[in-house]
Design brief:
The complex is a heterodimer. Chain A is mainly α. Chain A has helices at 3-13, 18-37, 44-59, 63-69, 71-83, 85-91, 99-123, 128-134, 141-150, 155-179, 185-207, 209-237. Chain B is mostly helical. Chain B has helices spanning 2-22, 29-44, 49-60, 62-71, 77-80, 84-119. The chains are: A mainly alpha, B mainly alpha.
Chain lengths: 238, 120
């Protein structure tokens, strides 16, 4: 490359907007791939993540530089968390006469889901940092990221664990539940929403309206309760 | 419309941040902001159109907003190397068990409630 072309190239790939443009472009590509295949493992976030990492590597751009210029995306996750009050408020309508079983299941099963991941990670010999990060795998990713920071885990990995949990739960959940004869749409929905949050809820919507409604309710309630109780529990224990 | 809703969301988060510093240091400001918005919705009894639009758009683009954080996972390759198997096993087993347990428990509790209603 002639010196001028070289300078122009460097100016382009180190422009403050390059990271944002790259993120927008890879997201749209990943979304198109997902819509064409509908294969749950091709979650747009995961595919776009790999494409961004690959591009940064090929162009020899430092990951920290990319993160600095895309920090606005991270900042916007705050209002996203505030916005989750809207689905919580709307989904509470589904609770109606089943509020007692829902709250009992939320407390018992929610606590089990939260502790079991870390417990098993401890048994299998994963590091303490990983055990703490896994405490957040059953809540939707914006909460998982925030809470992983609160419990001194790794927010980046919490996001990925949460997404993978959602994908696997959505793929296997309905089949597994049928095997043990769980049939009530409210039970199937709540199980999917409470353990597999957003992707699980999307899967539950395909099973029917009541199932989808209870999944959305389970996801909202699980997210809010964990977001309030987990930091309080940590501050009491430490 | 969109901007009005977005302003409300940011206002709630900033209020949440103030409460976090003043009164409740253990609960993050964003979460307090969400609880404030929830209370506001309970009082008003409806989701206004601007708020609905702003919340809907943000949640629609959530996957896009998550990409940079997911990318930052490469900085932690060292912390996860050697533990991939343990972590995936923990993730998978706990997910399967808690999914089944949640569904089973909810099914039992619904059945119990129906029985109690019949007896009453």
């Amino acid at each position: 490359m002639s010196p001028d072309l070289q300078a122009a190239w460097q100016a382009v790939i180190h422009h403050p907007l390059f990271g944002i443009g790259l993120t927008l472009a890879t997201y749209q590509l990943a979304l198109a791939a997902y819509e064409r295949t509908r294969w749950p493992f091709l979650q747009p976030v995961l595919v776009a993540m790999l494409m961004v990492i690959g591009t940064l590597y090929l162009l020899e751009i430092n990951v920290r530089e990319y993160l600095e210029f895309t920090n606005i995306f991270v900042l916007l996750l705050g209002p996203v968390i505030v916005a989750l009050a809207v689905p919580l408020y709307i989904n509470l309508r589904h609770i109606r006469q089943l509020w007692k079983p829902v709250l009992q299941t939320l407390l018992i099963a929610g606590l089990t889901a939260t502790l079991m991941g870390s417990g098993l990670a401890w048994m299998f010999g994963a590091s303490e940092e990983m055990q703490r990060t896994l405490l957040t795998k059953s809540v939707t990713s914006p909460f998982a990221i925030l809470l992983a920071g609160e419990v001194n885990g790794i927010p980046a990995l919490a996001a990925i664990f949460a997404i993978l949990t959602g994908v696997i739960g959505a793929m296997l959940g309905p089949e597994l539940l049928r095997k043990i004869n769980v049939k009530h749409p409210a039970a199937v929905g709540l199980a999917l929403g409470l353990t597999s949050h957003a992707v699980g809820t999307a899967r539950a919507m395909q099973e029917g309206e009541q199932c989808g409604g209870f999944a959305a309710l389970g996801m909202s309630l699980m997210g809010v309760t964990t977001a309030v109780l987990l930091p309080v529990a940590v501050s009491l224990l430490t | 419309m969109l901007l009005r809703g977005l302003t409300l969301l940011i206002l709630m988060q900033l209020l949440g941040t103030a409460i976090n510093v003043l009164l409740l240091p253990m609960i993050p400001g964003q979460v307090l902001g969400m609880l404030l918005l929830f209370v506001w919705l309970m009082i008003r009894g409806e989701v206004s159109a601007p708020l609905n639009e702003a919340a809907g758009s943000l949640l629609h683009y959530l996957p896009l907003l998550l990409i940079p954080i997911a990318v930052s996972a490469v900085l932690f390759i060292d912390s996860i190397s050697g533990q991939v198997l343990a972590v995936s096993a923990a993730l998978f087993v706990s997910l399967a068990l808690s999914l089944l347990f949640t569904g089973w428990l909810m099914e039992k509790l619904i059945a119990r409630q129906l029985r109690q209603k019949e007896q009453a």
